[in-house]
Each structure stands twice: as structure tokens, then as C-alpha cells.
Amino acid sequence: MLVYSYKGGFKMVGGYVGKILRVDLSQNKISKQDLDLSLAKKLIGGLGIAAKIMLEEMDVNTDPFDPDNKLIFATGPLTGSTVPAGCKSILVSRSPLTGIWGESIFSA
Fold this sequence. Notes:
Layout: E1 2-6, E2 9-13, E3 19-24, E4 29-34, H1 37-43, H2 46-57, E5 72-75, E6 88-94, E7 101-107
Antiparallel strand pairs: 1-2, 3-4, 5-6, 6-7
């Protein structure tokens, strides 16, 4: 997120950093990949991107305690901006309680 002074006020430019950080704890690997910004605009926010990752990369029968289960931390497009209450983030995974979608929304 880039914010700069514009005629006495502030103007927000961008919204996403443009990267996805992947951490594989079972193999001790960290990698970065580019975020498809057209997809980010279409899905609007971390929740949509997290849903897409879960649908495409996880089997529907993955157990919540299986190493293939993902913990997805995602931020919204307003995180890091000066917008009030715009700093929301989300954690998405397969819930151990229900065995289906589980999410927790948090902010600073």
C-alpha cells in the first residue's frame, strides 16, 4: 500500500503488496510467488483469495490434522492504509471442530 500527500490530503495507491508467501513446515521451505492482481480485484480481499487457494489446492477429504491441511493468513486490500478499521486480516483452515471451512477474522 502506498500512501502519499496529495494537495493537503492523502491519496491511496495500490492496495496489495502483490506477493503470496508460502511456508512449508514439513519441508522447512519458504517461497514467494506473485499474486495475480486481476484475480485479487475479482475476488476482493483475503477471504476470496483464501477460498480459491483452499478449493484448488486441498482435497475435500483432507483431515484437519493432516499435514496437507493449510493455514492461510490473508489480509484485505485496505490493510496498511489510513482507512479506519481497514486493518482486518483472516485465518482460514479446515476446522478440527466441524471438519469443514473454519475462519477467524482479526485486526489490530
